[in-house]
Please model this.
Amino acid sequence: MTKKQQTKALHLQKPQSTNSKVWGERKFGLRVWPFHPDQNERTKWLFEFLGAFHNSKKAMTLPNLVKHFACEDGMDFLSASTQALLPFDHAEFLLSVAKTTYLEVDDFWGAKVLVLTAYMICESKMTNAKEIVECFKAGGEVDEDKLAQHLPWCSEGYNVVKSVDEMKNHLEQLDLSELKDEVAAAESTITLNVNDGHTQTEMKFNELINLNTVLKLSIEKKQKSIRLKHNGARVFLSSAGRKSLRQLGMEDNDVLEIEDSPDDHTVLQPVGTDNILKESITATSNRRKKKNKKKSKKNKSY
Model:
């Protein structure tokens, strides 16, 4: 590749800023982002997903970042962040890398993407992913007052990356343990008494997760057919399974009864959430493969 072509490629990825000398260029176009040795599969997927956004020609703004997450995989990821009580590992990882890696090499654009995403993940603990996307659907300039009112954590991220100096100061003074406590305090959770007919277990869930996810997190063994009751009233998974606990009107200390299936005994045991996002993304990929397979067969028939 000639020098002229290299210059053109960087020009195409020129940052949208009133002071490009301060923000600088996106380092090396960041064709490949370095991977942290301690990151897990979910965080690795997130890093690759953000790398695709960073390497695009789009301006590094909060509205564009939210639109990037508006795809099926991105929405699955944001929705999955509510499935653990404190999935702070993603946000903590992104903020740590922004501070220790990207600021060290003066890649302010890379740091900005990571900081904005970290605070959007915090927001997804309190606000439904679809509502977050809806707030930026109209496009145009960010209304800071409305942003602070409806998406306070996104607003926090938006404000701290307004300039390089503000971002540097914020990351230098940031106490991740304090931030974690603040997110935990702001998260709206529900404590349910989950009863399998033999034992009753008290479990805490984010009220944004749906009923199907509650079962995934509560039951050790997958069941082909499950019957449920909420405070004695029958609940049908076909209509209620994809609704959030908030939408179903569930409150603290409500009783969720899981009846034994005819063949197997349901074992209640909190299930780890490490593989839930991976399963969600895999399921999305499998759905796409099935659709493509059907299209291929249809084309062959002609």
